[in-house]
Design a protein that fits this description.
By secondary structure, the protein is mainly alpha-helical. It is about 60% helix and about 5% strand.
């Protein structure tokens, strides 16, 4: 992989200093499964920009909102599930739009349908008229 295409990666000491946390806290987050930094050939933890974004969420939840690590794990898992569902919805909408566009195109290519319906007289008035005629007929003696 070329250097231009490689993602930036930060060592644990740089991340700890940047976010003003102890490296042991980062190791704890990794043990708890909250962060999953990659490793160098020398087994050094390397944090990507995606890892740092996730760390920022963790720190916001713990520092500003007082969420414990078990709660952080639940919230992060729910965020991932919601993101996956959002992607599925977007894919479904895109497929639906493609299908609608294909049907609209197909409908334009079809010849104009001929009116094959045969008009039927409104027969519902005939029985009422006959019944009315019976009621108004003079009585025979």
């Amino acid at each position: 992989m070329s250097r231009a295409r490689a993602k930036a990666a930060y060592m644990i000491s740089a991340v700890a200093e940047q976010y003003q946390i102890h490296p042991q806290t980062l190791r704890l987050y990794e043990r708890e499964g909250l962060l999953k930094p990659s490793r160098s050939e020398g087994n050094t933890r390397l944090y990507t920009d995606d890892d740092l974004e996730r760390l920022e969420v963790i720190l916001k939840l713990t520092r500003e909102l007082g969420v414990n690590l078990a709660g952080v794990e639940i919230i992060l898992n729910m965020r991932e599930k919601m993101a996956a569902m959002q992607r599925q919805i977007e894919e479904f909408i895109a497929t639906l739009n493609q299908e609608l566009a294909a049907r609209a195109t197909a409908a334009q290519d079809q010849p104009e349908p001929r009116n094959t319906l045969i008009p039927v007289a409104d027969l519902s008035l005939a029985p009422r008229a006959a019944a009315g005629a019976r009621r108004s007929a003079p009585k025979r003696g």
